[in-house]
Amino acid sequence: MSAIATTIHDEIGRRRRHRSGQGGNYREVLAIREAGMKPSMRTTAIAIALVVASVLPVSEAVGAGAAPEGGVVPDLALEPVADLSDAIAMATRAGTDDLFVAQRAGTVRVLHVTGGNVTVDPVPLIDIDAFTNAGGEQGLLGLTFNPSGTKLYLHYTNLDGNTRLVEYAMSAGGTGPNVVLSSRRVFFKVHQPFANHNGGELTFGPDRRLYLALGDGGDGGDPFNNGQNLRVLLGKVLRINPAAASGGRNYTAPASNPFFNQPPRRKAIWLYGVRNPWRISFDRDTGDLYVADVGQGAREEVDVLPANGDGLNAGRGVNLGWRRMEGDIPFNGATAPANHTPPVYSYDHGGSRCAIVGGYVYRGNAIPTLDGTYLFGDFCTGDIEGIVTNGTILTNHFTELGIDVPDFELQSFGQGPDGELYVLQSDGTVSRIEAAV
User: Fold this and answer.
1) Pairing between strand 374-378 and 356-357?
2) Which of 315, 321, 319, 291 is nearest to 303 (CA)?
């Protein structure tokens, strides 16, 4: 590691140990970045081998299973298809090949896909910048459409920094789909005690219910123990039905949720024990749920939660361990909960890595050797890698895919209706993952 990279790595660790409590991994690293330290952070092949070796012992990566087997590593490339500043999330809509990209400041843009060509519609689909401030880890964080494509849902932090979910009706009039602005309905509100760890993902699952990933509320070390407290919604993945109201709320918690009839536990909770899930996604072929949870100062994790034989119920009621566990290790001397579900894959902060960015399982047709591989990356290094699992056991780990983005630029991944994958960067670059020529 270069001297500059070592300095940054040490500085990140120092800030985590002595922070004032308003930070979080992203804010700490951004502060270092703004101070002018912008190293390449690329390592030599020997250094990469050492880092990979350090994160792949059986006890860390695969629990009680066997070490990952070898396999054919796909050779990939990134093909830029659009330039949208601070692209933060991507969604698709039934009945169209278009891609919908959220920009953190509050705008949703439409990418028209025709064959291999992508064009950006000059007219935004919607702009909610009047309702949100994009700073730090706040702003427009997620978007999705209901399964029929008739409703648009946005996840953002409001001007006070609190979580809001809003619904808009869609109209197909004019030259294409339009948002009916007068239909705006805020149906979900959560107070955020700090400015970080807001989570972000908003997606409909295979069961046609809406899933929301919420962080633990911020600060360092989850001071209110929100992750393990089933009386609060922070530090959870929630499952709701936004189309119906009940109990004085503008949404319904389905009766099949694990804590539905267990007051004072919150009905909307689907799983718990997460710190800042960035992001979650369902495997469109199997229904398995993947959760990429950003760690504190030591470990990052990928949790793979299998669906049942019907492709449903992935992750129902599981405890992913935070704040008693950080990845696969105890946090602050705690012990693992008796019902802890350990991660399938976890890595440390060696090589200047700092915060996981979750992606998707590849289910496209353009790169057959990539089928079934879950792609994800790290915010600090921009490195993109992949894992393959067999149920809950890691069977393959690809660290050299031939694709990465500049340090501190990786924001999110996206998946098109054809199963192809995209990479979103804060500098505005939206790229499609393709087979290298």
Assistant:
1) antiparallel
2) 291
